Amino acid sequence: MNTILRAVFCAACATSAHAADTRQFAFGPGKPPAGYTAVTTDTVYTSTRGYGLEPGTAPDGAHPWYFSVDLPEGNYTVTLALGDDAAPARTTVKAELRRLMLENVDTAKGQTVTKTFTVNVRTPQIPTGGEVKLKAPRETVDEAWNWDRRLTLEINGTHPAVRTIAIAPATVPTLYLLGDSTVCDQPAEPYASWGQMLPRFFKPGIAVANHGESGETYRDSIARRRLDKVVSALRPGDVVLMQFGHNDQKQIKEGKGGPFTTYKAEIKLHVDAIRAHGGLPVIVSSMERRGFDADGHVIPSLQDYAEAARQSARELRVPFIDLNAMSKTLYEALGPEGSKAAFAEPAPGRLDNTHHDDYGSYELAKAVVLGMRDAKVPAAAFIVDDFAFDPAHPDPVTAVAVSPSPHRTAQRPLGDEAHR
């Protein structure tokens, strides 16, 4: 990373918020603190009110619930006071579409613990004109929370307990993601992606903006104007992680390109656009699918695309994260049977060998974070202090206990139909 870009990045790290713009809400019994708006079980979200509980949910201490606030597009610092006067609590917080922000925060009876994270809110509109071409009904209905003019928080856990929430605008670096179904914010269990888990491994002061979408390629990123949306919002020093490959393979069958021709050319188009707007592009090779030979080794299915990604990073002189290699190490460490726990099972006995569940996504997110640190990507300055990961020695399945979200689907994510 050149010295000038690193200096610009660090200069952008200061958070700027105006007290008058801070939105403050209180959820506990009794009179709210001064300056806080009381939220009761009857405070259901309406567009007129501009905040409230999502219909059918309420903070009862036993079930997940959702709270939404109308906000302009941008980054926000969210501060929560967690705890319950009547009982011990364990709270997990996700944002928008299941982006993991806080994981299993324990509080003793009567204790209050304050936690802060940074989150990105976006809309389809592109400031330079037009908008992202959203997929209907997937993005307009199932994934609408990712694109509406509000921040939605999922309060989850074995005994979720929130006393107050404060939300303030933040001028901070942004870590953008572009990719396919293994990157994007999946709307429902059992599917998840490493992009959804990524925020959990970063301190406050940097926002993760996930612009990935199921079924897409580098070519789709351009055609559907996702790249345009990202570069329109880039500030000098922002980072863009890009991982495509699973769906790009279909272009070979259609006679419309291949890994060492059009794929590399489309990578270059992304790199050039991001650089032109002051951002740092980072190329990530696609993780492998689950498939083993008789000796317990992963059968490569994306080898050419991983190599093309590597070549592009070298030729264009941008950081490279070899998630393909790390995923093979991870899967082989888990073994043919153990690796099943990392992949989604939408119905009993129906394992999806491409898409991951919470555990698999959590481990792959750690692999990406490790790759960022090893590649000396400036955003790695925000990695949480206790981070450690070795894909050859993954976390035990029982050690990863991300509270499942209420919504569940048997519908497979778009794309990659040839590799079920």
From TrEMBL:
Residues 177-331 form the SGNH hydrolase-type esterase domain. Keywords: Hydrolase, Signal. It comes from the Bacteria. Residues 1-19 form the signal peptide. The keyword Acyltransferase does not apply. Pfam families: Lipase_GDSL_2 (PF13472). The keyword Hydrolase applies. Belongs to the 'GDSL' lipolytic enzyme family. This is Rhamnogalacturonan acetylesterase. It comes from Massilia pinisoli.
